């Protein structure tokens, strides 16, 4: 398990234990953070948008072209920052223990 | 038999297949243009699968895979042509004739791929000769050649003839086309007086055949169109043949017969009709039967021999096969090895 620090949409912060081999989107969705993950990780819905903290953003593998395209598509409806990621594309490997994310507002 | 027998030739037939070929790449006849009015749609089977054939309000024909990329509804059952689009019955996603999704009536954020490419498989189509044609490529590549101008069917003033035929054979398109170069069978299966000489030239997707030193001059434009001009009794009559691969083992051969619009009662008109009768095999007392009466028994039962035992006097069967192979460029290595 990897500890992930999550800032909810209401500003409250919790630490959750994320399974290393499960995309973070699923853990956030199943734990009731208001992440829908409608497309199941196909990068076609954009409902799993999170902001990664500045410190951690640089440590994650960079987003793929498809992920960038999806982030771009939601930018008309929600604030997309340089540290925006699709949580369906984040595998919380143990090397990311302590990862900090903030749930982005709904598109 | 002795010890040194060639077992390969004796036993090879055990592993033969009737139609080991994929559907070849090319332009194919879909249907006559006047059978599909604007906003009409129907399900058809061609190239081994079902398709939704439709015509938009402005008159553009479309041919799409039936299953909606969204959640898989069959758009030919309950779908609808809306303006220039085909609309899926399930959630009303709409697609244009090129397969681009043009409307998702409820999603706020458009999935990026929808803006990047067509998400529904459709076939490139053209209307020519009063017919709808579709380009088939197994991996959805764009057309690599164009359909030719055929004066006999496109020149509204000079030609006439409304005779058409349609025959379905239980074999693949290559096996049917191979008969064109197999001149020996013309004598023995069709009962022609002799084996006519043949010369063939190949250039890209085009094969030109001359059978009987100018008696039949044919041009194939890929696997789906063949224009054959019969020169006899001082006139030229034309057979335009457009075979459809319905499945890998079933083909429908379609033909239109055309000739110069000679005046009523002229010997030229009489000769033209006689030549066409002969092509169809309808003429009485002919010394050689037209194709449809005799070829079927062979096509419907034979197997394909990738290593045939050809002899002196056979036509250019192997050159034909080599030419035809280009239409399987999308096939995998294992398939290619069998053909
Ligand atoms: S779950 Fe749909 S984009 Fe991540
Ligand atoms: S399945 Fe076609 S729109 Fe949903
Ligand atoms: Fe024949």
From TrEMBL, chain A:
CDD domains: fer2. This is 2Fe-2S iron-sulfur cluster binding domain-containing protein. It comes from the Bacteria. Its cofactor is [2Fe-2S] cluster. GO terms for molecular function: 2 iron, 2 sulfur cluster binding; electron transfer activity; metal ion binding. Pfam families: Fer2. Residues 2-107 form the 2Fe-2S ferredoxin-type domain. InterPro entries: 2Fe-2S_ferredoxin-like_sf, 2Fe-2S_ferredoxin-type, Adrenodoxin-like, Beta-grasp_dom_sf. It comes from Solimonas marina. The lineage of its organism: Bacteria, Pseudomonadati, Pseudomonadota, Gammaproteobacteria, Nevskiales. Keywords: 2Fe-2S, Iron, Iron-sulfur, Metal-binding. The keyword Metal-binding applies. Belongs to the adrenodoxin/putidaredoxin family.
Automatic annotation (TrEMBL), chain B:
Keywords: 2Fe-2S, Iron, Iron-sulfur, Metal-binding, Oxidoreductase. Its cofactor is Fe cation. Residues 27-134 form the Rieske domain. Gene3D superfamilies: Naphthalene 1,2-dioxygenase Alpha Subunit, Chain A, domain 1 (3.90.380.10), Rieske [2Fe-2S] iron-sulphur domain (2.102.10.10). InterPro entries: Cholesterol_7-desaturase (IPR050584), KshA-like_C (IPR045605), Rieske_2Fe-2S (IPR017941), Rieske_2Fe-2S_sf (IPR036922). CDD domains: Rieske_RO_Alpha_N (cd03469). One of its GO terms (cellular component) is cytoplasm. One of its GO terms (biological process) is cholesterol metabolic process. GO terms for molecular function: 2 iron, 2 sulfur cluster binding; metal ion binding; oxidoreductase activity. This is Rieske (2Fe-2S) protein. It comes from Solimonas marina.
């Amino acid at each position: 398990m990897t500890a992930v620090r999550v800032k909810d949409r209401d500003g409250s912060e919790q630490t959750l234990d994320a399974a290393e081999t499960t995309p973070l989107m699923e853990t956030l969705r199943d734990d009731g953070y208001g992440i829908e993950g409608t497309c199941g990780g196909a990068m076609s819905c954009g409902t799993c948008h999170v902001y990664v903290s500045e410190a951690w953003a640089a440590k994650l593998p960079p987003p793929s072209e498809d992920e960038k395209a999806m982030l771009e598509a939601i930018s008309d409806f929600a604030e997309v920052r340089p540290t925006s990621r699709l949580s369906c594309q984040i595998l919380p490997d143990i090397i990311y223990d302590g990862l900090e994310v903030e749930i982005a507002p709904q598109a | 038999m002795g010890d040194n027998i060639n077992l390969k030739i004796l036993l090879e037939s055990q592993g033969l297949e009737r139609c080991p070929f994929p559907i070849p790449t090319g332009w194919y006849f879909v249907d006559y243009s006047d059978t599909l009015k604007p906003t009409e749609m129907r399900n058809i089977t061609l190239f081994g699968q079902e398709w939704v054939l439709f015509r938009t309000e402005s008159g553009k024909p479309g041919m799409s895979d039936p299953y909606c990329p969204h959640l898989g509804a069959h758009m030919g059952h309950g779908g609808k042509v809306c303006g220039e689009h085909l609309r899926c019955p399930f959630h009303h996603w709409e697609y244009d004739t090129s397969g681009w999704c043009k409307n998702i009536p409820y999603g706020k954020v458009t999935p990026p791929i929808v803006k990047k490419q067509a998400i529904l498989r459709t076939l490139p189509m053209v209307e020519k000769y009063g017919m709808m044609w579709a380009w088939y490529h197994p991996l959805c590549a764009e057309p690599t050649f164009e359909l030719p101008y055929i004066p006999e069917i496109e020149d509204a003033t000079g030609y006439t003839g409304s005779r058409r035929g349609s025959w379905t054979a239980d074999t693949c398109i290559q096996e049917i086309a191979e008969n064109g170069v197999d001149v020996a069978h013309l004598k023995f299966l069709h009962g022609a007086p002799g084996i006519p000489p043949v010369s063939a030239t190949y250039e890209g997707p085009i094969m030109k055949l001359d059978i009987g030193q100018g008696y039949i001059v044919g041009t194939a434009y890929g696997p789906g169109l063949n224009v054959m001009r019969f020169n006899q009794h001082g006139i030229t009559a034309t057979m335009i043949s457009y075979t459809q691969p319905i499945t890998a083992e079933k083909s429908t051969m379609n033909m239109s017969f055309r000739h110069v619009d000679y005046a009523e009662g002229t010997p030229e008109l009489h000769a033209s009709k006689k030549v066409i009768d002969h092509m169809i095999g309808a003429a009485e007392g002919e010394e050689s039967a037209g194709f449809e009466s005799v070829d079927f028994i062979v096509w419907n039962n034979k197997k394909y021999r990738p290593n045939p035992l050809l002899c002196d006097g056979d036509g250019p069967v192997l050159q034909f096969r080599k030419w035809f192979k280009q239409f399987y460029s999308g096939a995998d290595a294992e398939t290619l090895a069998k053909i």
